[in-house]
Design a protein that fits this description.
The protein is α/β, with parallel strands linked by helices and 127 residues long. It folds into 2 domains: 36 residues; 79 residues, Immunoglobulin-like (Sandwich). Helices cover 28% and strands 32% of the residues. The strands form 3 sheets. A 4-stranded mixed beta sheet has the order 2-1-4-7, with no helix packed on it. A 3-stranded mixed beta sheet has the order 3-9-8, with no helix packed on it. It starts with a helix and ends with a strand. Copper (II) ion (CU) binds next to loops.
Length: 127
């Protein structure tokens, strides 16, 4: 009985090592992907772009994204804000610490503002 247990333990060590080795490989391969996509505006996996709402402003105020990307606004202020695109969409009030997302499918330039504080403006350029 004892001999069998030891043999099993020894046999499993190479398997564990092999497992570690194969797990380490994929991240190295993935680092090439963003650089390869940098010059191509088509066939890029949709991504999420972050805009921070702070001190009654959208940061960054202007962002460039690709069609199909999603923008997420995070309200880091102590008061509610909103993202409003006239005649089209309103996120509703985004309370402090909360987020709202809009997906942009068409290539266009969109000016938006905060419904609660119209002087807060931002631009999304969809390429
Ligand atoms: Cu606001």
């Amino acid at each position: 009985m004892k001999k069998i247990k030891i043999l099993l333990t020894v046999a499993s060590i190479p398997l564990l090592l092999a497992g570690c080795g194969s797990v380490a490989t994929p991240p190295a391969a993935n680092t090439n992907t963003p650089a390869g996509n940098a010059n191509a505006n088509t066939n890029i996996a949709p991504k999420q772009v972050e805009v921070n709402i702070t001190n009654f402003s959208f940061q960054p105020q202007t962002i460039e994204i690709n069609a199909g990307d999603t923008v997420q606004w995070t309200n880091s202020d102590q008061t509610a804000h909103a993202v409003t695109i006239d005649n089209r969409i309103d996120t509703g009030d985004i309370d402090p610490g909360k987020t709202a997302k809009i997906k942009f499918n068409d290539k266009e330039t969109i000016n938006y503002h905060c419904r609660l504080h119209p002087s807060m403006t931002g631009t999304v350029i969809v390429k």
